[in-house]
Amino acid sequence: MPDIAASSADARSITTGSNAALISACHAGDPAAFLTLVRHHHPALRALARCWPGSPHDAERAVAHAWLAVLGSSPPAPRPLRARAARAVVAACVERTGVACEPAPPSWLDTTRFFPTDHDLWAREWADPPRPWGAIAERRLAMRDIPRALGRTVRELGIGPTAALTLCDVHGWPVAECAFALARSESQARALLRAAREGVRAALEAEIDSR
Amino acid sequence: MSELPAPRMSCREVVELLSDYIEEALPGATRARVDAHLETCPDCTAYLAQLRTTIGVLGRLREDDVPQPVLDDLVQAFRDWHAG
């Protein structure tokens, strides 16, 4: 396979958000431009595809399909390329697995940690408040085994929450792009994110409190 | 006559809003009520700190490498696509 290097102009244009110059170069058949896009956006798209059941190969195929689909289409709306590619990834994964991106669970908070609504004095206040994690816990969270265990927790959240968390918190995408990728409203994407973050926080809390 | 101040939010109401609070997605008046609650509630402040830490830890799960064989396959697919 050829040695294809991205130019510094390509590297600059990737940060502008439009990627217009790179897309034009791709349409002209420039593999370096394509590789620049891939290197920048592929990790998030691959992580998104891995939210669905299947092998790593299945995930890579879904992303490859999405890249070519998005390059071959004219943008219907001024959406960033990566969001359109992510939406194509989701469509490919749903088609392959038959598993849709489900909405946020209606109940995501452990309400037993709060006094009940009809409590005379402390209705809906903390009954079992979180303990501050402190410096020792923060150091423990920085250790290598915690992120590995966390990866398992994230995968068990369900496809919708896992996908929202993967795009927004792991890869730093704005909620608007995540919502477009998942074909959900922004408010639905925020609901997925709320549920997912609480699921992971609770898992970390259990881990820290057990030590 | 001046408007009555909004009632104090409960801890559970605040906790349900903290993810959106971090995203700066709350309307101004709601955010002000959350801020007012946090000023006097160490438990919700601890929860907020845990949520922020959680998001920070999640950022470390990011895998940025794309293996060379994958890149090679993608470039080949790109060439095939462009050749029509």
Largest interface (C-beta under 8 Å):
A-B, 54 and 43 residues
Q: Which quaternary structure do these chains form?
A: heterodimer
Helix and strand run of chain B: HHHH
The percent of residues in helical segments of chain B reads 55-70%
Number of helices of chain B: 4
- Radius of gyration of chain B equals 23 Å
- The secondary structure category of chain A is mainly alpha
- The assigned structural class of chain B equals mainly alpha
Query: Number of DSSP helices of chain A?
Result: 10
Uncertain spans of chain A:
1-17
Overall average residue pLDDT of chain B: 92
Order of helices and strands of chain A: HHHHHHHHHH
Beta-strand portion of chain B reads under 5%
Helix content of chain A: 55-70%
- Form type of chain B: elongated
Low-confidence stretches of chain B: none
Describe it.
The complex is a heterodimer of chains A (211) and B (84). By secondary structure, chain A is mostly helical. Chain A is 61% helix and 0% strand. In chain A, helix 8 packs across helix 10. Chain A starts with 7 loop residues before the first helix and ends with a helix. In chain A, 44% of the residues are buried. The model of chain A is unreliable at 1-17 (pLDDT under 50). By secondary structure, chain B is mainly α. In chain B, 69% of the residues lie in helices and 0% in strands. Chain B contains 4 helices and no strands. In chain B, helix 1 runs parallel beside helix 3.
List keywords for this structure.
heterodimer, A: 211 residues, mainly alpha, 10 helices, 61% helix, 0% strand, elongated, disordered N terminus, B: 84 residues
